[in-house]
Amino acid sequence: MTGQDDEGVAGPPLLDQQLCFALYAAQRAVTAAYRPLLDELGLTYPQYLVLLVLWERGETTVKELAGALRLDYGTVSPLLKRLEGAGLVRRERAPHDERSVLVACTGRAEELRERAERVPGALLTATGLGPADVARLREELWRIALRAEEAADRAR
Length: 156
Fold this sequence. Notes:
By secondary structure, this protein is of the alpha+beta class.
């Protein structure tokens, strides 16, 4: 995308007109808004995402967890190690396939779940977004993500 001046003449790319920068700035701002909410739970944002998947799906493999989070194994593994050290998850080899590692919440993580259920509502209050705004924005962001993933796949 190139920048345009007030008369519509193309010029060099302008930072504030870049979609990627708007997405980046929004992601950083939302993560910062989550921080105090998650600090009360003793979690980082990535740890919160891991627990969201486990609360939703129950016991799952590391591979499935990484896929759900759209992260590689090398990123998920240290997250799980820290969550395990905090007593929030347990990891064990799958009895039917020694190559597969299962991850599940502990009782401590299940106790945290109720407190964590307040986080999304608190964020909506902080941003002033209503349910319809959130639904529309989420749908549009998933559409962007899908198209960007498809473009990346074609480029490979």
